[in-house]
Amino acid sequence: MSSFSKDDIPEDWRNLLGGYFDSAEWMQLENNIQAVLNTDFFSVRPEPQNFFKALVLTPVDSVKVVIIGQDPYHSPGLAQGLAFSIPANIPVKSREFPSSLRNISKALVLEGFGALPNGDLQDWAQQGVLLLNTALSVKLGEAGSHTKLGWQYLIDRLISALAMKKPSLIWMLWGGHAQSKLALIEAGNHPLILQSSHPSGLGVYKTDRPFLEPGGLTSCQHFTKANEWLVGHQQKPICWVSSNKHSAQLDLII
User: Fold this and answer.
1) Class for domain 6-245, per CATH?
2) Structural contact between residues 136 and 81, judged by C-beta atoms closer than 8 angstroms
3) SS3 for 45?
4) Are 133 and 158 spatial neighbours (Cβ–Cβ below 8 Å)?
5) For residues 7 and 10, what is the distance between their CA atoms, to the nearest angstrom?
């Protein structure tokens, strides 16, 4: 069937993780994931070759921004190994298009970048936006089904090591799950930490730091603040929506 090993992780990220691969936590994850692949291979999402796609597309040295998600989409045809991202062929106005991406696109419009033409965020990843879920696999139809297999130890170690190694990283923490990693990030090297409610569904308005303000007239400004920070630290800003895609339209009515 399919095997699972540390060799699936790019070398630069393995080096960052250091002695983690000699730990009981890694052996637990390795054994648990291999058991799932052996018994339930066709129900695992994303496909095993995409478990570490976020790390493949965004090498350690290129990371500028980290956006933390929870676990992969559990609906068929959506998970691709990047937090929040889905394949480009999913129609923007279809039922399959996640509400979190709709609201991310609305925020980008409100901040003057334009609408996302589709839900594929690989372009962000290639510019240095690490789209990191805290569990890297899920069973089809069962949200959170793999969160207790040991992924949390790997991701916590990665977050902590990255925060310490890379100065002035930008961390976008949307919702309580992402914000539970705050202590790991605050111990890092002069980070910019941007927090808000999660962009999914009606939760987008919750808390005293909403992702979108009620009424949809303004956003949390995270994308603007990130680019201002990057420019202020002599780095190239992120092109959140390519200029030739600004004509893409999205229904902004929630």
Assistant:
1) alpha beta
2) yes
3) strand
4) no
5) 7
CA–CA distance, 233 with 223 (Å, rounded to integer):
16
Work out the average pLDDT over 52-75.
Answer: 97
Domain boundaries, the chain: 6-245
Residues 6+ apart with CB under 8 A from 23: 153
Rounded to whole angstroms, the Cα distance separating 71 from 177 reads: 10
Classify residue 129 by its DSSP letter: E
CA distances to 37, 162, 169, 190 from 62, in Å: 31, 12, 11, 17
Report cis status (omega within 30 of 0) of the bond before 46. yes
For the whole model, what pTM was predicted? Answer: 0.94
Q: How does DSSP classify residue 61? A: G
Query: What are the C-alpha distances in Å from 19 to residues 109, 122, 155, 157?
Result: 43, 30, 14, 10
Q: Do residues 97 and 213 touch, judged by C-beta distance below 8 A?
A: no
CA distances from 251 to 102, 109, 114 (A): 9, 11, 12
Q: So which residues are the catalytic ones?
A: 71
Strand, coil or helix: 62: helix
Q: Which helix (H) or strand (E) holds 132?
A: strand 129-133
DSSP letter string, 174-223 = ESHHHHTTHHHHHTSSS-EEEEE--SSGGGGG-SSS-SB-TTSS-B--HH
Distance CA 151, CA 52 (A): 12
pLDDT digits over 135-190, tens only?
999 999 999 999 999 999 999 999 999 999 999 999 999 999 999 999 999 999 99
Gap between the Cα atoms of 153 and 250, Å rounded: 38
Our CA dihedral for 121, 173, 252, 140, rounded to 10 degrees, sits at: 60
Token pair 């987008």 in the structure block, residue? 204
